[in-house]
Design brief:
The protein has 360 residues and is of the alpha/beta class. The chain has four domains: 49 residues; 121 residues, D-Maltodextrin-Binding Protein, domain 2; 94 residues, Periplasmic binding protein-like II (D-Maltodextrin-Binding Protein, domain 2), CATH 3.40.190.10; 51 residues, LysM domain (Membrane-bound Lytic Murein Transglycosylase D, Chain A, Roll). The strands form four sheets. Strands 1, 4, 5, 6, 7 and 13 form a six-stranded mixed beta sheet that branches. A five-stranded mixed beta sheet has the order 10-9-11-8-12. The N terminus is likely disordered.
Amino acid sequence: MYRKLKNDKLENQKIMKNKTQSFSILLIFCLSFFFLTSCNSSTNSSNNDSDLLLEKINTAGRLNVGFEPDAPPLYFEESGTKKGFDYELISFLSKEVFDGVKISAIEDGYDQLPNYLQEGKIDIMAGGRTDEENEDELYSESYLSFGYCLLTTPSSSDKFRDLSSLRNARIGVYDDYTAQWIKEKVPSSNISIIGDREEESTPTSDWMSGLVKGEFDAIIYDYPFGANEIEDYNSKIVISNKNLNGEDLNNYVLVVNKRTPGAGDLLIKINDAIQKFKRSEKYSDAIAEYIPNSNAKNISNINPADSYTIQKGETLSIIARDKMGDVTRWSEIYNLNKDILASPDIIYSGQIIRKPSGWN
């Protein structure tokens, strides 16, 4: 009886051992299958991610774009029609990058729009700045570069022309960001932040009235906005310097959510379209329509053979291509004419510029 029980026990142990081995083999097989399936899924996802955002937008037939409202000349509404330089760019992108999708403008304050990106309420944010980089965002190439312009009254335009002339001057700026920039450049200046004078019920340039009244010696403002807003003042305010920044220009960019699948690949397509836009007549037409050519400075005492008059529809890239045989030589033209041009992007028909060497 004991032997039988012992044999039965040994037999049961043998059966349990076999079952354990079988279970181990099955477990290893299942884990291997799960691992291979996951890798395959991850590979497929990686392969498909590149166009996910693009496909999502095209399928929806709508491109949700975040704009700061009532911000001429970049974005505004007139008689029920949305306009502005940024809107022209987005309209171009909707045809070049997407399937001609409808543009849905989502408006809110500049500080709120990045949150909309992260929440998925907008696909793209217009009017972003590269100097405000966020690790959750991806930035396009610059579509509009500019410097701070110096606004004065006509009687003070010769006195206040550059940063060195602003020592101990009373300066009005729109926001704290600009105030910090001025403090670094001209520590002795007396700065007042005056953007809070703007009210929705009044013209956007009413906050500049302090300059006309003599409360300030000068105002420092982004060139596109300054050139646009002084139009309301009938020559009571002029631009004495179009670019205080020198080579350190401000840049506007488009912004997408870095964590959205396919965002990086979409940005490559967007950058290609931005370059195409900047090298087309559509770009110069948008500049001419939305950014006034305030106080254009013409060259005097120069041999006409050494100068060139910019024609309608031309950009520096187009001029470099046609006159110098290389589109990338636009920088040579700009560097020779920094005292005339507000930036490489902002030029106007009728402006007279100097010809660099290698001009055909």
